[in-house]
Design a protein that fits this description.
The structure is a single chain. By secondary structure, this protein is of the alpha+beta class. An 8-stranded mixed β-sheet has the order 1-27-7-6-5-2-4-3, with helices on both faces. Strands 8, 9, 10, 12, 13, 14, 16 and 17 form an 8-stranded antiparallel β-sheet that branches. Strands 18-24-21-20-25-26 form a 6-stranded antiparallel beta barrel. The longest helix is centred in the middle third of the chain and has 18 residues. It is globular, with a radius of gyration of 23 Å.
């Protein structure tokens, strides 16, 4: 694999928001890393730190257990593991962050799918003593499945291996070789000790052989692609607004969040799945009329013609129509304890539209250790990743997930009790989509 270097002269965007997730096996130190990030970047209040110090003393610990900043459930604190996704919001002078601390235990892998589904970067932790394990591979596969643009490999607990560079290098080689087979094109590797604070916020004095960014430096400078950049314009209708007041007797607006791209007044659009066309007559944003709106803004769109539009419809530029289909081929991650089987009736939720569907084929299941495909397994159980075909009762206007993460994704739901069964990504598999590209390990130079 080639090595890519991040340009140290690139200026950080101080008004951007980065959504990122942490993942890793049990006891790899995810919650401690998050706590260290918050503590050393001075993003926690004094009373929060005092509460953590008191809780740590009550457990017989002399130093504050920073993992308690994110492990908020009683069961999490008692067992010392993360169960639910813990979201934290913090900011530095360079950038704002939304962080999802996801569980490491295999039983709660489904929660990583939730936390990483909107992430632009995933930090995957590895215990320096254990190296890459099966759960590390599973988290890498999910990051590839969700097409998270940036992956950081944080080799933690370097203090327990005497900060040895050969240990770090061997783990990086192992992980990046596996990641390349998944189609992950770039990995940034950082040796850290979350407990001691090495290379998390401040550079480590114990690893002079490492010349790259700290974790926080990388988070502050990694490029973020705007949601409207390059993706086709997609506007799922969430709600039809008809006030019928004396001031607005004929007002009819279609409210929702722009999933991708840019909408403009005067643009010719098509309403799917019906296929009716019209022109954007107006766009209301926060009570004001605007000429242009872009993802992920929430707006109300007015059309020039009186067409039939309802919740679940998709408004798109007439020249950028997605494919309409009733046969959805996709990669899914199975989330439920109950299995998914061929012939099973489900609900398919796509953006704001929900339709009845049936699983017509379970094509293959991914074997993590060698990335082979096990054909026609017959069923998926919890945490399985594989290919399926689903036939819907009504046509869906759906993009490939490689084109749009919002309009290429869907959920399969049990129609009986509303349980989410699987998260799906339409189109070709992540390995097929990315295998043509070369990947590398990024070791960004310190500015």
């Amino acid at each position: 694999m080639t090595t890519t270097i991040t340009d140290p002269t690139s200026s950080p965007t101080d008004t951007t928001l980065l959504r990122f997730a942490t993942a890793g096996s049990v006891d790899d130190g995810k919650s401690t890393l998050v706590g260290r990030l918050l503590h050393d970047s001075k993003s926690i209040l004094a009373d929060q730190l005092e509460a953590v110090e008191q809780a740590s003393r009550s457990r017989g610990q002399h130093a504050p257990d920073l993992a308690l900043l994110t492990d908020g459930l009683r069961a999490e604190r008692e067992q010392g593991i993360t169960i639910d996704v813990a979201y934290r919001y913090f900011a530095t002078p360079r950038r704002r962050f939304i962080l999802a601390d996801t569980p490491g235990h295999v039983q709660y892998t489904r929660n990583m799918v939730t936390g990483a589904s909107t992430a632009e970067l995933t930090v995957i932790l590895v215990d320096a003593r254990n190296g890459v394990v099966e759960q590390t591979q599973r988290h890498a596969a999910i990051a590839a499945l969700l097409r998270v643009p940036h992956v950081v490999l944080a080799v933690n607990k370097m203090d327990l291996v005497d900060y040895a560079e050969p240990v770090f290098a061997a783990i990086v080689d192992d992980f990046t070789a596996y990641a390349a087979r998944l189609g992950i094109t770039s990995v940034t590797a950082v040796p850290i000790s979350a407990l001691a604070g090495d290379n998390v916020v401040e550079p480590s004095s114990n690893m002079g052989w490492y010349g790259g960014h700290t974790v926080l430096e990388h988070l502050e400078t990694v490029p973020i692609r705007p949601a409207s950049d390059g993706a086709p314009t997609r506007f799922p209708v969430q709600y039809v607004i008809r006030p019928r007041t004396a001031e607005n007797p004929d007002y009819r607006g279609y409210a929702g969040q722009i999933a991708s791209g840019t909408l403009r007044v005067g643009e010719r659009v098509t309403v799917l799945p019906a296929g009716r066309t019209s022109t954007v007559a107006g766009i209301d944003l926060l009570g004001e009329s605007v000429e242009t709106a872009w993802a992920p803004q929430s707006v109300t769109v007015l059309l020039a013609d009186d067409v039939d539009v309802s919740r679940g419809d998709l408004i798109v530029p007439t020249g950028e129509l997605p494919r309409s289909t009733r046969d959805v081929e996709a990669t899914v991650c199975h989330l439920a304890d109950r299995p998914l089987t061929v012939g099973q009736r489900v609900l398919l939720k796509h953006t704001t539209r929900t339709v009845q569907a049936v699983v017509t084929a379970i094509v293959s299941r991914l074997t993590l250790h060698d990335l082979s495909q096990h054909p026609e397994p017959g069923r998926f159980t919890a945490n399985d990743i594989g290919r399926v075909t689903v036939r819907t009762a009504e046509p869906l206007a759906m993009d490939s997930y490689a084109v749009s993460r919002r309009t290429g994704s869907f959920l399969l739901v049990d129609p009986g009790d509303g349980t989410t069964l699987a998260a799906g990504m339409a189109g070709e598999s992540f390995t097929e989509a990315w295998n043509a590209q070369a990947g590398g390990v990024a070791a960004p130079a310190r500015p």
